[in-house]
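Schema walk-through. Below, the input block comes first and the output block second. Nothing else is stored per chain. Lengths vary across the set, and this one has 175 residues.
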Amino acid sequence: MKLDQPGWLDCARQAPSPNCDERPDGETPSLVVIHNISLPPGEFDSCAVEDFFTNRLDKNAHPYFQEICELKVSAHFFIRRDGEIIQFVPCTMRAWHAGVSQWQGREKCNDFSIGIELEGSDDTPFTDAQYARLNELLAAVRNTYPIQAITGHSDIAPGRKTDPGPCFDWQRVQN
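--- output ---
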């Protein structure tokens, strides 16, 4: 598993998102932010997350979608329950995954981070396949960029976000 020059992963299925832009001049990824997402909340194995990140979410498909359908968000990667990796944004670009955020005194974490979403929720354990693919992906990212830390969304947006949640086992993340 490796990343090419523009930051696309060779083994990921690409689903390009318009919800990204250029990183600030001279900025390269130095932080990885781990998230969880499921749409509708707590439900897995649908195309809703992919539709959400590519602005194709049908607001009439579920009542919750009416609340979020106007949001413009993305992540670089999404790891499904079976381990499939979908990439929405090349790593050289800024994905809109962190929102209002701060890491070690630096604000705007989207500027210098790579966002990885795991299909899941705060109260559902993640799968062995997800941890295996996450660790492979992290190795590829570390081989390409000067990553200094891996953290959760809750750590860069405390009080606002809770993911990846208490069911995420940080001991299974290879550093």
